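Records of this kind hold a single protein each, on a pair of labelled lines. Below, a sample record shows both lines together.
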Amino acid sequence: MAGVPMDQREGWIWFDGELVPWKDAKVHVLTHGLHYASSVFEGERAYGGEIFKSREHADRLIRSGKTLDMTIPYSVEEIEAAKRLVLDRNGLVDAYVRPVAWRGSEELSVPARNNTVHLAIAAWVWPSYFTVEEKLKGIRLEWSKWKRPSPETIPSSAKAAGLYMICTLSKDAAMANGYADALMLDYRGYVAEATGANVFFIKGDEIVTPTPDCFLNGITRQTLIDLAKRNGFKVTERHMLPGELADFDECFLTGTAAEVTPVSEIGEYRFSPGKACRTLIDAYSAEVLLRRAAAE
């Protein structure tokens, strides 16, 4: 499927309660979500046919909708059933799953209370691309010129489409400069996150990660904090200034797509992915297998 435009793929998408052919899953050009970013979504991974922490993602989708004053017209149980149906109908085992909710096209102005809230769920093949050895080479990040805004100016606890505009700008700029991603500071100048992943720093058996008070507290982030503690690490969540990065030996990102991805470089700072990163990569893989086995 590589190189095939997203709107031209084969398969089935769950759209407002029913499966429709992939190419027929369309919305109008005057949809409120397109013009005013009244949209929330999730990114999930299925391993061996089981979605990792699926219910947590469904819960967050509904919470994100409420944060944007959108009531998604489906329960967690209905969303869970729809995700399973999408995987089954498309014959997917290792896949990426994308639920998205948005306001429709009844009216087009800033107010949106008269617009219907829609929900669609798509999924496509997404295997694990890198071996542990390849991951341990680490990726290179540059500093983004964009900063995470104050939670008084954006609904930072929601996984809302509009919040990713500066992420796209940051990652495109980084890739144009030969980097894999960018690291963002927040409005106060503290270290925040990468464009689609949370960040962790390691020194010995201590791990430090920025406090998620103006960016998303990722589900994978929460998983890794728990796994790190279970593997003997001390985990501290606190505000971090950029200059502190020089004090750490290892660094990694976490996210649905990133899983656990070691980092070798952030701007002028260098890291050497090693034993700690490998331990956490292995711990995450074991957790995925354990949850998959429990669901079978």
In short: The mean pLDDT is 96. The longest strand covers residues 139-148. Helices lie at 32-36, 54-67, 76-90, 132-135, 165-176, 219-230, 275-295.
